Each structure stands twice: as C-alpha cells, then as structure tokens.
C-alpha cells in the first residue's frame, strides 16, 4: 500500500478518535442515564456534521431547576456554521438541519430537544437581545465548543453584551402589535362563526328549494327576494338579521370597525340562533311536504362526529391580515 494512502487512512482514524475522545464535561444536574445519552448525542452530531458544529450547549429547566420534572426535555442549543452555504435560504437550512438533529436524537432519547442556531443569525440575536439566546448565554453549559461559545458567555456575564436601543424599541413595538393581533383574531373569529351559521343554514334551505348555494355577500338579497317575497317563508326581520350578521363580519374583516362589544356579540348570538332555528323549521316543513325525512343517514353520521368550524358547506377564505402580522412578529423577534 502506498505511503500516501496509509498516511491518509491513519489521519482519518486519528480524526475519528479525536471526536470520540473529546473531553466531555460532567453534568451534575442530570441523572447518570441522561448524562450518558447526552454524551452519545453529542458524539453522533459531531460524527454527522463535524467541522460545521461550533458549539453544543445544554440549558433550560434541566440546568436551572425551574419547572423541572422527570419528564422535562433536555434542551440542547446547536450552533452551526452556515457561512459557506450558498444554495439554500436560511429558513431552508434551519429546517433541514432541525430534521437531521431530531433524527439523530430520537433513537437515543425522546427527552433530547435539539435547537439549531445558525452562526449568521446568532450574532443578530445577540445584538437584538433575543430572550432565549440571552438565557442560553446566562445558564448554558457547553457540551462541545470550538472556542466560540465560552468567550461570548464570559463577555456576557461581565455585562458587556447588552441589547441595543433599537432592539428594546422593537420588543415594545412587537408587544403592542401582539395585543392588536389578539383583539383582531378574536373579533374576526367570533364574527366569522356567526356569519357562517347564517350562510350555511340559508344555503341549506335555498338548495332544498332548487336554488344554487349563494355566496355570503348574496345571502341577504336571496333571503329578501326568495324567502320573503317569492316563497313567503319568513318575515322581513330575518332578512334584516342576515344582513346585520354578515355585514358585521365584513366590517371587521376589512378593519372598518375595531370593536365588538360583549353586549352586541351576545345579541348577535341570540339573533343567529333564532335565525338558524327558523331555517331548520323551514327545511323540516319542506321535507315533510315531500314525504321525506328531515335527516338523512349521512347527516346523522356527521352529527355523531366532531363538528368542524367550516360546517357542511366549504367556502373559500382569504388569508387573514393576522397571518401576515404573525409572520412579521416571528421574523422581528427571531427564535423564542
């Protein structure tokens, strides 16, 4: 065998031994079994990713003891060098990395909870005062380090790493946006459910009469023209109820109104309940006149199953502004 090949093999074996023989710190706050599993996991990650791993740090409740139980996850921050990645976005890299880290952890212990941090985002989180990362720096114990994490942790403990004014302002901004998000989400959910109750019950009656199921915005007009004037099945007040409930949802959806008081919601609940009961009475009457039963086998089976929010009629729904706001908030705060 050529000397060059032998030297290469010898070097490869030496590198493998180096990973296996890496000095591993004692973990006094873990059980012997958990400590052994953590060590096995660190070795598995290093074998898989090698030079790309900058640090692996254990932190969280198992370290601090706050909220710790026998079933507590073992949080392990894995800092990975992504500076030479050119073909994937940061999100794609993190998604694939997380999947691989979980695949390595699962056979060893279900308690292991890896959390990947890319090197390029790590510094952003430090500068922005990311709460999770500050806790990692405050309480973290390095399991493996290439000389990256420990110096930063020492600087942090000396009080020399502080969030910028911009980061502080950003947290306050996000807090205010979260309140708006909570209010808007609640308003839209409540009004949407009532609107859909009116829409679905009206569609049921109109389809029984041979009409196509109208879109939500067409419901008030169909009630007025068909159920009130043509068929004379309901009074004018039911057309008004349909119009009020549907318009309320549209106003909230388009942000033309920002409040939906409890008293008004309670009133609308009662009106909607009254409206749906009336539609059900009409449907029963129409079926009876045809000599048919009100409830078919399919409906009876569905009633026994868990009721879904979208009901019997599937309607297209636009992407809510809250979803965009949620994405923005996650991007602003980073990984929490």
Which properties best describe this structure?
336 residues, alpha+beta, Beta Polymerase, domain 2, 2 domains, 13 helices, 62% helix, elongated
Report on the architecture of this protein.
The chain has 336 residues and is α+β, with helices and mostly antiparallel strands. It folds into 2 domains: 14-162, Beta Polymerase, domain 2 (2-Layer Sandwich); 168-333, no CATH class. It has 13 helices and 4 strands. Strand 2, helix 4 (90-105) and strand 3 form a beta-alpha-beta unit. The longest helix is centred in the middle third of the chain and has 44 residues, at 165-208. The radius of gyration is 30 Å and the shape is elongated. Residues 11-23 and 308-316 have low confidence and may be disordered.
Q: Could you provide a short overview of the structure?
A:
This protein has 336 residues and is an alpha+beta fold.
Topology:
Elements: H1 3-20, H2 32-49, E1 53-59, H3 61-64, E2 74-80, H4 90-105, E3 112-118, H5 119-128, H6 131-139, E4 141-145, H7 149-157, H8 165-208, H9 219-230, H10 236-253, H11 262-290, H12 297-304, H13 321-333
Parallel strand pairs: 2-3
Antiparallel strand pairs: 1-2, 1-4
Helix pairs in contact: 8-9, 8-10, 8-11, 8-13, 9-10, 10-11
């Amino acid at each position: 065998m050529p000397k060059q090949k032998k030297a290469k093999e010898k070097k490869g074996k030496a590198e493998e031994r180096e990973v296996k023989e890496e000095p591993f710190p004692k973990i006094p706050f873990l059980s012997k079994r958990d400590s052994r599993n953590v060590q096995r996991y660190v070795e598995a990650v290093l074998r898989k990713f090698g030079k790309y791993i900058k640090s692996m740090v254990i932190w969280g409740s198992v370290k601090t003891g706050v909220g710790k139980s026998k079933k507590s996850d073992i949080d392990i921050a894995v800092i990975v060098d992504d500076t030479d990645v050119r073909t994937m976005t940061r999100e794609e890299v993190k998604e694939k990395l997380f999947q691989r880290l979980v695949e390595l952890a699962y056979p060893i212990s279900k308690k292991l909870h890896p959390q990947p941090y890319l090197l390029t985002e790590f510094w952003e989180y430090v500068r922005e005062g990311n709460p999770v990362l500050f806790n990692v720096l405050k309480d973290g114990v390095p399991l493996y380090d290439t000389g990256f994490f420990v110096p930063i942790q020492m600087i942090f403990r000396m009080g020399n790493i502080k969030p910028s004014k911009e980061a502080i302002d950003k947290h306050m901004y996000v807090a205010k946006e979260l309140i708006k998000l909570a209010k808007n989400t609640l308003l839209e959910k409540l009004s949407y459910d009532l609107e859909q109750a009116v829409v679905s019950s009206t569609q049921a009656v109109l389809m029984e009469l041979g009409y196509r199921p109208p879109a939500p915005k067409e419901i008030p007009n169909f009630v007025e023209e068909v159920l009130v004037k043509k068929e004379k099945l309901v009074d004018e007040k039911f057309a008004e109820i349909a119009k009020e409930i549907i318009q309320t949802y549209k106003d909230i959806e388009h942000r033309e109104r920002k409040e939906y008081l409890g008293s008004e919601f309670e009133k609308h609940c009662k009106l909607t309940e009254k409206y749906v009961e009336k539609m059900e009475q009409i449907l029963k009457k129409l079926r009876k006149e045809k000599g048919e039963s009100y409830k078919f086998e399919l409906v009876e089976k569905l009633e026994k199953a868990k009721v879904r929010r979208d009901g019997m009629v599937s309607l297209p729904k636009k992407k809510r502004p809250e979803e965009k706001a949620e994405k923005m908030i996650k991007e602003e705060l980073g990984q929490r």
